[in-house]
Amino acid sequence: MRDEKPGIWITGASSGIGRSTAIEFAKTGAKVFASARRVSELERLNNELEADNLSVEIYPCNVASHTNVDQTAKKILQNYKIDCLINNAGITSFKLAEDNSVNEINEIVTTNLLGSIYTIKAVLPHMISNNGGTIINILSVVTKKTFTKSSAYAASKTGLLAYTNSLREELRQYNIRVINIIPGATETAMWSKEVRSKYSDRMMNTENIARILVWAFLQKDNLVTEEILLKPISGDLQKPD
Q1: Which domain holds residue 92?
Q2: Angle at 82 between CA 227 and CA 143, to 5 degrees
Q3: Mapping DSSP to helix (H, G, I), strand (E, B) and coil, where does residue 232 land?
Q4: How far is residue 170's CA from residue 196's CA, in Å, rounded to a whole number?
């Protein structure tokens, strides 16, 4: 018999927004399926949650591999339902376009754009069959504003924005909500330690963003917040030199 608690699959759950979101959803009593490449960090997360008698289910996954994504989704769905997919896994490189290698560009686009499409494709049949579900994508302010040293990252995130905006229209008939979260500078490991140390007061924290994700998922009836733009009150932060 399937667990009646809502099932939340979070990619990139080993750090940053994904980690904080896993914690916040665990606090609500949801069944959290935490995925990432770094299994040791997911285990560390569970060790910390144990103090509050909470836990997440660990499902190692590299979203850049569609085979790995399909296998992971099947493992989860063998015993649970997936009510919400949160596409959070992402990487970047703060380089000028002329300095990005083809391999770097391929890795960024494959992880951020194709990886999210792979997970969406993996859960869609399940959600369509259930006539409902929620897909939340963690995008970036680069989809709204032009920044230097972010060309490959911007291409991947803007591509996902276009893909999911189109997808949303196709999924309305199945009662599936597609929500795009667009955060500005957030204090995560995506930024170097030096940058975080110097500019953390101008960055948002992951816990506050995680609470917004939980709120967006818990909206009732036929209401859906389709896009949420989040920025530090001090405004955008360009990549410091």
Answers
A1: 7-230
A2: 25
A3: coil
A4: 40
Q: What is the distance between the alpha carbons of residues 21 and 32, in angstroms, rounded to a whole number?
A: 10
Give the residue numbers marked as catalytic.
Answer: 153
CA nearest to 230, candidates 215, 208, 200, 214: 208
Asked if residue 90 belongs to a domain, the reply is yes
**CATH number of the domain that 142 lies in?**
3.40.50.720
* Residue 214, in any domain of the structure: yes
Number of domains in the chain: 1
Closest C-alpha among 171, 105, 103, 165 to residue 139? 165
Does a structural domain hold residue 79? yes
Residue 26 covered by a domain? yes
CA atoms within 13 A on the CB side of 108: 23
Helix (H, G, I), strand (E, B) or coil at 106: helix
Strand partners, 180: 137, 227
Q: For helices 115-130 and 151-171, what crossing angle results, to 10°? A: 10
Give the pLDDT of residue 235: 79
pTM for the model: 0.92
Tens of pLDDT, residue by residue, the chain (241 residues): 455 899 999 999 998 999 999 999 999 999 999 999 999 999 999 999 998 999 999 999 999 999 999 999 999 999 999 999 999 998 888 899 999 999 999 999 999 999 999 999 999 999 999 999 999 999 999 999 998 888 999 999 999 999 999 999 999 999 999 999 999 877 666 656 776 677 667 778 999 999 999 999 999 889 999 999 998 877 777 654 5
